[in-house]
Amino acid sequence: MGPGQEPPAVQGDEQPVQGRAVHLTAVPAEPPAGTIRINRALAQAGVASRRKSEQLVREGRVSVNGRTVTDLSTQVDPQRDELAVDGRPVAQSAPVYFIYYKPRGEISTVRDERGRSCVGDVCRKLPGSPRPVGRLDRPSEGLMLLTNDGEASQRLAHPRHRAHKEYQVTVKPELADADARRMVDGVELEDGPARFLSVELVDQARGLSRVRVVVDEGRNRLVRRVFELLSYRVALLKRITLGPLRLGRLKPGEYRQLTAGEAADLRRQLGLGK
Q1: How far is CA 93 from the centre of its chain?
Q2: Secondary structure (H, E, C), the chain
Q3: Could you say which of 77, 137, 191, 203 is catalytic?
Q4: In the predicted model, is pLDDT for residue 137 greater than 70?
Q5: Across residues 205-225, what is the average pLDDT?
Q6: Is residue 191 annotated as part of the catalytic site, yes or no?
Q7: pLDDT-derived band at 12, boundaries 50, 70, 90
Q8: Alpha-carbon span 203 to 205, nearest angstrom
Q9: Which architecture characterizes domain 164-242 according to CATH?
Q10: What's the predicted TM-score (pTM) here?
Q11: Once rounded to an integer, what is the mean pLDDT over residues 25-35?
Q12: Predicted pLDDT at 24
């Protein structure tokens, strides 16, 4: 080998790359099958929303199998790991979903101090300890979701997500076109402006109108109050959709459990993945 000559390359040696740097990036390991992030597990169990669950973890109030965790990337298996918040165990049940037809006169709460019939009476008969989602006032009827899936409950009930709800409403006297337009344009209630996304007249006769309205908020008695503001008496108010859910052919007091496929589809439509 003469002066200034490079040594010959030996087969198998790495050759230097001229003119550019080579960067190697470590590929993160896949989380174990069946595990999810700690904040999602807390949200699914109904402890709090994902954002509030993150705060609980950061504050050191959450433990997994007896050990306090503060790392938000912690993966847990909801069916095997024991979670606790402030030392209190978090009940982990397989998610269940029931469509329920709340009859008129029933209260849409878990319990009633005066012993009146409430939706919680139905929930206590069902597996998985579900809770009602999408309140209806006592004179109203129709679709409610009963579930123990805290994430789905948040997406359907929290005002930020603006889940659409459709109602069948019978009012007296007959609905005037000008009032229907006002409902869509917006009216002023005592707790702020309110508007319907749509108002559809189904039929009217003998001083009554049957109407379908769609709203995207869940303020207490919103639909009823808008009609009453414009001097209409509500004879019937029935919710027929809640987000992607439909009441279907259920009768008052009946319920139906969603199939696994329907439950997965519900979570997908709510932006929750599987």
Answers
A1: 17
A2: CCCCCCCCCCCCCCCCCCCCCCCCCCCCCCCCCCCEEHHHHHHHCCCCCHHHHHHHHHCCCEEECCEEECCCCCEECCCCCCEEECCEECCCCCCCEEEEEECCCCECCCCCCCCCCEHHHHHCCCCCCCEEECCCCCCCEEEEEEECCHHHHHHHHCHHHCCCEEEEEEEECCCCHHHHHHHHHCEEECCEEECCCEEEEEEEECCEEEEEEEECCCCCCHHHHHHHHCCCEEEEEEEEEECCEECCCCCCCCEEECCHHHHHHHHHHCCCCC
A3: 137
A4: yes
A5: 95
A6: no
A7: very low
A8: 7
A9: 2-Layer Sandwich (3.30)
A10: 0.73
A11: 64
A12: 57
Under the banding of pLDDT at 50, 70 and 90, the label for residue 202 is very high
Token pair in block for residue 131: 């809770």
User: Domain map of the chain by residue range?
Assistant: 36-89, 93-163+243-274, 164-242
The CATH number of domain 36-89, selected from 3.40.50.2300, 3.10.290.10, 3.40.640.10, 3.10.180.10? 3.10.290.10
Say what the pLDDT of residue 58 is. 94
Q: CA–CA separation, 60 vs 121, rounded Å?
A: 36
In the structure, what pLDDT confidence band is assigned to residue 21 with cuts at 50, 70 and 90? low
Q: Supply the CATH classification number for the domain 93-163+243-274.
A: 3.30.70.580
Nearby residues of 26 by Cβ (< 8 Å), 6 or more positions away: none
Amino acid at 101: Y
Q: Is the pLDDT of residue 6 over 60?
A: no
Q: What are 228's two structure tokens?
A: 């009453």
* pLDDT confidence of residue 141: 98
